[in-house]
Specification:
- There is one protein chain.
- Helices cover 0% and strands 45% of the residues.
- The protein is mostly beta strands and 151 residues long.
Length: 151
């Protein structure tokens, strides 16, 4: 398991880059990220999102990513497209709530105020993204959508 930690020394840039991110308000009491992990516009299986929360010390690792859009933040209206004319993912809505689909979901059983330090790990467990951080506040809870691409 990869344990991300902020570093005071510059790291070599990793090949997996964030190319899109969104945050949406929620009433959930757990922390969740839906993501698409891609390379050459294809969904990549076997990748994980790994994170640690500060100050709680909670460490979480997602299940491996699928080779298709296997995770969604909620039900979608069937007639709504999942992407625009260039097939750029767009948030669809049902009953006024945004819905995003991904091939991996990162879920922590508790939503706590603090900072999540996260990385993407390849199927062999190697860190392939730079550390990215998400600040969380229990009083203003959000769920997140990210799209990563192997450069």
């Amino acid at each position: 398991m990869v344990t991300p930690a902020p570093s005071s020394t510059p790291e070599t840039a990793k090949p997996m880059k964030i190319i899109e991110s969104q945050a949406h308000d929620t009433e959930n009491t757990f922390f969740v990220i839906f993501a698409q992990i891609t390379g050459n516009n294809a969904l990549l299986p076997g990748y994980r999102i790994v994170g640690t929360h500060s100050p709680s010390g909670l460490a979480v690792e997602s299940a491996p990513s699928c080779n298709h859009l296997c995770k969604a933040s909620g039900p979608k209206v069937v007639d709504e497209p999942a992407c625009d004319s260039r097939c750029t993912p767009v948030a669809c809505t049902t009953t006024g709530r945004p819905v995003q689909e991904g091939n991996v979901v990162f879920e922590a059983f508790a939503y706590e105020t603090g900072v999540w330090s996260l990385v993407v790990a390849d199927p062999e467990g190697n860190q392939v993204s730079d550390v990215f951080q998400i600040e969380t506040n229990y009083e203003q809870r959000q769920w997140f959508y990210y799209r990563f691409d192997l450069q």
